[in-house]
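ok so i was messing around last nite and threw this chain in just to see what happens. nothing serious, just curious
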Amino acid sequence: MNNTVLLDTGMKHLSDKLGLVEAERFIALILRESFDYTKWRKDNLFVGMSIKEISDAAKKYCDENPDE
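result:
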């Protein structure tokens, strides 16, 4: 996937989930706050969850969202 397709796809997903105005606001916040996704993910995502809990949550999400 080239950069243009990636940007288009990402913006479409953000807009679909947040709406266009909130998607733009989200991007502005990331740019303004020097957001470090890798650090955020390490410090916040899946904290306190076992591998089994993460796996179960992923399976449930896939079952509930087959088109994604």
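not much to say yet. The two ends are 17 Å apart (CA to CA).
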